[in-house]
């Protein structure tokens, strides 16, 4: 007989979240308190099939805590696929932080869950449900909306580039897309770019009518990432997407971007570390 949790329906509550154990899944409910990261509040809850989990770990945390974490299989969750490793530790939806005195209980559940896991390696399809549309958020240069079938960008005259104004407001059918590129608003040059089948846009996102730019408080993680995940899930449901070619930038464009980056650095708007990292990224694109 397959191993099953000894007490189905048990709930393990930690800081910011609680895990409810079921026969074939874990239901994670996130608190809505002011101390809970906004992304987790926005997600509300996530049902994670055990088939989506490759391992469960228990490690020491900070300041007298332990951390129970579910490691998901690559490709199992559209949110993690869209995030592409850019989420900060505190926003990881699969970390449950508990007081150290509950370590024995946490270890019990880690062992019970681990004994039920039978899958590993990349998942052939998304196993965790994506955030539901409709969704929208304000970027720096426009408003992005998704109704489940079409992604729309409506430009703001205060932020959109002349190239985007000339192109006009945009609408993209899900069937015409091959994927989504999300770059966190918490880093330099954060953006959301729609990848179109058989097409490549301009290297600079502020000139690409299939992209919106973050910054200055626009496109926050808790709004733009669930949006990206919902779009990505809809795209995958349309069938296998061809691999999008990554355009290489023109050397003159790279030089201009580095010059602009240097001006921001001299003005104190970019730190020494940010300047070095971004400059290296730009040079690597040559």
Automatic annotation (TrEMBL):
InterPro entries: DUF4429 (IPR027860), SHOCT (IPR018649). Pfam families: DUF4429, SHOCT. It comes from the Bacteria. Residues 19-113, 144-231 form the DUF4429 domain. Residues 256-283 form the SHOCT domain. It comes from Streptomyces davaonensis (strain DSM 101723 / JCM 4913 / KCC S-0913 / 768). This is DUF4429 domain-containing protein.
